[in-house]
Design brief:
binds P-hydroxybenzoic acid; single chain; 20 strands; 8-stranded mixed sheet; binds 8-demethyl-8-dimethylamino-flavin-adenine-dinucleotide; FAD/NAD(P)-binding domain
Length: about 400
Amino acid sequence: MRTQVAIIGAGPAGLLLGQLLHKAGIDAVILERQTADHVLSRIRAGILEQVCIDLLDEAGVGERMHREGLTHEGFELLIDGRRHRVDMAALTGGKTVMVYGQTELTRDLMDARAAAGLPTVYQAGDVAVHDFDTAQPRVHYTRDGQRHEVVCDFVAGCDGFHGVCRASVPRARVTEFEKVYPFGWLGLLADTPPVNDELIYVNSARGFALCSQRSHTRSRYYLQVPLTDRVDSWSDDAFWAELRLRLDDEANARLVTGASLEKSIAPLRSFVTEPLRFGRMFLAGDAGHIVPPTGAKGLNLAATDVKYLAGALIEYYQERSEAGIDGYSARCLKRIWRGERFSWWFTHLMHHFPEDGAIGERFQQAELDYLLHSESGLRTIAENYVGLPLDFVA
Ligand code: RFL
Ligand code: PHB
């Protein structure tokens, strides 16, 4: 098979790239290791920045998102039993975020791709990328016991943190920056009305918790748990009981519990690969970088990588200019590091780090005390949360 761009991975990054390239008349094939149902069963992000919303509109898949997504103008911080509202809109000149699950966004992209008759190979096994330093990269995969080859101009590595693209680059050509946090997030999804109209980020004596949502009838909650905890040892009842201990009276009075639709533990990690381009192969989204989910940045950073990559490839095909692809890595990394810094900092502010000792706890309390009583402090949180501008002056 011959195509212009071979996209590895049908997560949000790969599917969005496929859609933007299609709109520009550029051919792409997507190779995905899992089934479509498996991709849709992974419950992940829930908050979209305006940049991401605009991009989905540009890709022509924003209709259901605007109909069903919930616009949020603020969120709450529950610190030591007291609520503090971060009025994002007031602090950022009217910016907001949207609650719309990654699953829904992925489904919209999959539907648009199917409706346009664009090729996606699900259950593509043993994907291997070759010759990405030449003008004609090749990708091999197996399907139903048969080996296939895709010959292309470019490879887009949208295959997530455990993907094959980054792993195919000789070690000497990559620098990886990594921090693994000493706890995970236990998440629970339930068809119960959310406990609050807005999200509540909780720093309690028993650790972090988050009250999030997918709609007016579906809630998503998270608890900070030790890395040694196993999801099987957390019954639904145990989850709700622990959540109650981390919430305030007002939230407990409104909390509606119910059977979980999904429950999983995600480890927390900060990770960046430099560079993001290797000859004619590019990394985008989780394939190149991971953030802890506290700042809700993972999916949004993936979307901006894709915006830059689509722009660079369109410039290459339409104007025969390599400027965009040459600048891709540096341009993305500048934004990625800002998202990484915020996610790391906000994670530090909101979680328990027992190994930092009593002095670490006092520093955290003092920092929260400063931020929550300073308009500049609150604006710093709000500005980062709604998403920093796309390009910064060097
Ligand atoms: P994805 O979504 O991981 O998609 C990558 C796709 O590539 C496929 N793949 C391969 N295909 C072919 N051959 C191979 N060898 C392949 N290896 C992998 C995979 O099956 C998959 O379908 O990456 P993408 O598209 O870059 O999207 C990024 C987002 O998914 C991610 O940033 C966020 O979901 C991160 N994240 C969260 N972000 C938030 O903002 N809020 C959250 O609450 C939140 N929760 C999460 C998360 C990420 C998690 N992971 C990755 C473990 C919870 C979890 C559990
Ligand atoms: C979610 O709804 O899954 C969610 C929301 C905000 C975060 C992380 C996860 O910071």
